[in-house]
Task: structure prediction
Amino acid sequence: MPKISELAAAASAADTDQLAANQGGTTRRVTVGQVRAGLASATHTHAISEIANLQASLDAKQPIDPDLTALAANTTNGLWARTGNGTGAARTITAGSGITVTNGDGVAGNPTIALNFTLANIPQSGATAGQVLKWNGSAWAPANDEVGSGGAAAPSIITASAASTYQATGLTGDRVIKLTLTGNVTITAPTFTGLAPNSVYFVRYELTASGGARTPSFSGYTLASGVDPARTIPDGGSLFIDTEAHTDASGAVSLQRLIGAYDVGSEPAAPLAPDDRIVFSDTSEGGRPKSAPVSDIRDLSGRAVAFTDHIPISGNGTYVILEDNTILGTITGVTYRCNTGTLTATLQIANHTSSSNLTPAGAASISGLTDLAVSTASARATATGANTMGKSGTTGRVLQVVVTNATGSPTVLTLTVRGTT
Result:
């Protein structure tokens, strides 16, 4: 027979239904209502102490925090920042100069920060036109873009005149100083600013005497061995003085000395080879004298002349060097070499077929300039016989070279042809 507790759990009949229960060996009949009345109430309370471990569990929980309350009240997307006790705000990572930010609020994905390095993002930082960033010994700072230690950049030119004393001040790099002397001038070593540490800077004085002979002197320089600047410059004459300034680890000038002095008008003549260069006194190109190889100088007065041609070689064949040259008359010899490998070269003179047809015809090899063994070492050969490049009536002349036995992949044949007008 079921117990009363089992009957209560299964009761679904009306209150008037009666159930039989066996309790203590005695059969009793009760109604469903009586069973329900005997059950505990659905709503009841207990003291915390009556429930095991309840107080310890409560003590382990975080108490209510005003910062959490502020966070719970937020409705804005973004990264949360505490701004005070119980206050906060949603923030977004934003881009500054030279920086790009993706997903700054973190909503669509992880925030990504990257450099956006372009020239437009570099601040001026006090620089003016033409300046660059240089280390001045203690910090990076804008300074003029000057090249020391023999750099390729042309030095700036200063033009001045003086009667008694002269000093250039505030130089920021290499200089050419064109100074007209109207008296016997004492030239004092210049002052510099913004120089790089542990470098060498050069200053050239181009001195010109005006109104009479002038004798310059120099102050504040040491004198390099063999240099003698004590020269009198004749009226209208020139004297070039080269100086150098050395800087220490802080960029300060530690030494200035005279390293050269020469009078262009009194320099001795030097023997020249075809590959040498001639330097002219014209300094219109950034203050540097113009120069040209000897082979480019055409002497119109009948003395020996030469020209150099660098001929691209694509293999064996005939290559035209010169057509209708009115300066080079009789060919007297040639200097030759190639950039790589070896080849055999034969120089020939041919006629144009007519004044209107420039096709060469009747090529004749120049005696002495046949089957030249050409390598990367420069060599010379002398021509003999009638080797005139002069025109014959209206028929012009063609100078050509026949290349054979090309090995080692030569790509340039250099010929310096000598002759007389």
In short: The longest helix spans residues 66-73. The two ends are 148 Å apart (CA to CA).
